[in-house]
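Narrative of accomplishments. A recurring question from our advisory board has been how the design workflow behaves on a single, concrete structure rather than in aggregate. To address it, we present the structure tokens for one chain from the evaluation set, followed by the sequence designed for it. No filtering or post-editing was applied between the two.
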């Protein structure tokens, strides 16, 4: 049988509460550390291909609305619209599928195919990008797996520099010089987003 609360040693109760509080604090601190290291890895991947970049911005959709863009990146190939997805689990998705399925150890769920919204973001940037080429990719972090293959606009974050070549500032200067005026116009057409992650 349990002792009534008024018979429990107050020092024992205080110790138990203190241990619980310490455990909760350590758990919170670990979560904070994981988010910090994940954020740092994302920014390092972006910087590895970017001559310049902006994060978490809004751009006009041309119809009195605005679209959120995770990253706009100036690369030696032009402007890259990067949609970042931090979704852990096994993902099954395809170009023609309306919904993609995620399976984790604990649950199964779906989310809308992100390719359509990416095309809208690319179109919005192209409206102001002049002659500069505009591409778009949906980048998933390493916590996602695509066992049946990745749809055409999807890449893994760590392979970003494979597709867009690591930055060598000196050789890249010549490549991006012709994009600078358009890039400035695109940047000037953005404003900070309230959905700020980076």
């Amino acid at each position: 049988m349990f002792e009534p609360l008024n018979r429990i040693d107050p020092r024992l109760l205080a110790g138990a509460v203190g241990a619980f509080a310490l455990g909760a604090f350590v758990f919170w601190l670990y979560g904070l550390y994981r988010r910090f290291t994940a954020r740092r890895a994302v920014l390092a991947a972006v910087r590895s291909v970017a001559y310049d970049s902006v994060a978490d911005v809004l751009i006009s959709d041309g119809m009195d609305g605005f679209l959120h863009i995770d990253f706009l990146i100036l690369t030696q190939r032009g402007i890259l619209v990067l949609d970042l997805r931090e979704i852990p689990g096994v993902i099954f998705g395809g170009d023609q599928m309306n919904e993609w399925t995620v399976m984790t150890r604990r649950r199964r769920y779906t989310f809308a195919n992100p390719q359509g919204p990416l095309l809208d973001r690319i179109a919005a940037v192209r409206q102001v990008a002049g002659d500069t080429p505009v591409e778009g990719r949906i980048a998933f972090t390493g916590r996602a797996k695509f066992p049946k293959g990745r749809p055409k606009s999807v890449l893994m974050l760590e392979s970003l520099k494979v597709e867009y070549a690591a930055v060598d500032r000196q050789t890249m200067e010549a490549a991006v010089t012709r994009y600078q005026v358009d890039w400035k116009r695109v940047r000037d057409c953005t404003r900070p987003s309230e959905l700020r992650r980076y």
